[in-house]
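Long-time lurker, first post. I've been practising inverse folding by hand and with some scripts of my own, and I keep getting stuck on stretches where the structure tokens seem ambiguous. Below is the full token string for one chain I'm working on. Before anyone asks, I'm not after the true native sequence, just a reasonable design that respects the backbone. If someone could post their per-position residues I'd love to compare against what I wrote down in my notebook.
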């Protein structure tokens, strides 16, 4: 939880914007002294929205520390798990958090700018939203044994295989899911075209960007970490184990949450952002054809790199398309029901390992060091939101100056609300 302070001076001059996160979690500290194989079961408790990325980043860190390579079928099952979470989380965000503001208009009464009003006034849209959320979440449950706190990722693979019965059940549900994805894309295009003036003029905030790619292809489970400059130049591409050369961490006076930045550029010049728009910026292309077409349309409209904070909603839909296509591809892969999903000879040892995946909200890093008994002696976590906090403050500063100093909202072209209440 956080709070926001906007400090105004004479003449409504914006002096400062501060995003406060004053709670403490202590996960890094209470991981110390525990068996490292327990970390993947503890890590999902860090975030109820992104438990699966935490679970998988954690198990990848353990494997990196102990020199373990899981079977290919286990990797495919993990990828299916994280793509299902990507689909579910993006659907929740787009429909429950973003859509009400655009559907009813930003100046509608707050009492109607919520998901309950969407359910009431647009039941068809609400149904497709719920079905997408349910598809992703229930698929996560079938693979992870729990929808929120998965337990099946273990050092050396997956605890149990995916049954043919479950595979067939989900394959039957894929056509309806893809139909709802297409409806989501159509709705997103309508919203983006209607609000293009807002998207291109409000909170346009140049920063660095960070995300995983596999040889330039957007990836959320594996790959190298790529950093792009505000000018659109790839300034770094590195293996997860080398992160300390590129990750800087600044502790602001007004918050316990640290600001992560591109270390070679320094702070605050090197402030970067993660999340879906950052990934769409750093990637050369998408991994699947429908998503690639959606990315090309987005880039034709807002360019690359896009510094438009409101374009995160569009990028979220682009990634939903890729998640849906990946899910279909993986469910059709015979290896997804292979029983060869775990190693039997994993032994604890001394080591230092880094695991990185993409959570829906950004690049997620777990780094553990173990002693010769496999006990954690040090843990460092860079959670997705930490990558964005400095960028949030910067974009809010830009928006606040537009509103308070330039009265910029008066000149914006706003459409009629899609739904009038």
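-- Answer (accepted) --
I ran through it position by position. Result:
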């Amino acid at each position: 939880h956080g709070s926001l302070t906007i400090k105004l001076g004479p003449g409504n001059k914006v002096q400062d914007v501060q995003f406060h996160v004053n709670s403490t979690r202590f996960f890094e500290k209470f991981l110390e002294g525990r068996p490292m194989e327990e970390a993947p079961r503890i890590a999902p408790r860090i975030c109820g929205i992104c438990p699966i990325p935490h679970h998988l980043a954690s198990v990848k860190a353990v494997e990196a520390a102990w020199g373990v390579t899981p079977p290919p079928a286990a990797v495919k099952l993990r990828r299916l798990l994280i793509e299902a979470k990507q689909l579910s989380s993006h659907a929740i965000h787009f429909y429950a958090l973003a859509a009400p503001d655009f559907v009813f208009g930003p100046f509608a009464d707050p009492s109607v700018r919520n998901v309950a009003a969407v359910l009431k006034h647009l039941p068809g849209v609400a149904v497709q939203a719920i079905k997408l959320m349910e598809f992703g979440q229930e698929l996560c449950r079938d693979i992870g044994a729990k929808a929120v706190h998965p337990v099946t990722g273990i050092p050396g693979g997956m605890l149990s295989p995916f049954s043919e019965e479950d595979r067939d059940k989900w394959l039957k549900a894929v056509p309806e899911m893809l139909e709802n994805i297409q409806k989501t894309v159509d709705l997103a295009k309508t919203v983006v075209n209607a609000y293009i003036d807002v998207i291109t003029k409000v909170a346009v905030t140049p920063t660095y960007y960070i995300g995983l790619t596999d040889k330039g292809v957007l990836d959320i489970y594996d790959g190298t970490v790529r950093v792009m400059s505000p000018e659109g130049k790839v300034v770094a591409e590195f293996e997860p184990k080398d992160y300390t050369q590129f990750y800087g961490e600044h502790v602001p006076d007004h918050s316990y949450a640290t600001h992560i930045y591109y270390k070679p550029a320094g702070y605050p010049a090197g402030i970067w952002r993660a999340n879906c728009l950052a990934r769409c910026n750093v990637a050369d292309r998408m991994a699947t054809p429908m998503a690639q077409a959606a990315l090309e349309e987005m880039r034709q409209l807002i360019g690359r790199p896009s510094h438009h904070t409101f374009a995160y909603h569009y990028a979220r839909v682009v990634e939903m398309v890729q998640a849906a296509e990946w899910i279909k591809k993986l469910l059709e892969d015979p290896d997804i029901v292979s029983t060869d999903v775990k190693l039997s000879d994993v032994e604890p040892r001394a080591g230092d390992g880094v695991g990185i995946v993409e959570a829906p909200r950004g690049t997620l890093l777990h780094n553990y060091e173990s002693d010769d008994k496999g006990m954690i002696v040090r843990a460092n976590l860079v959670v997705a939101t930490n990558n964005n906090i400095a960028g949030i403050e910067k974009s809010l500063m830009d928006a606040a100056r537009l509103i308070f100093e330039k009265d910029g909202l008066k000149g914006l072209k706003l459409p009629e609300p899609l739904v009038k209440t």
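A couple of notes from the structure itself: The first helix runs from residue 27 to 31. The longest strand covers residues 351-359. Happy to go over any region you disagree with.
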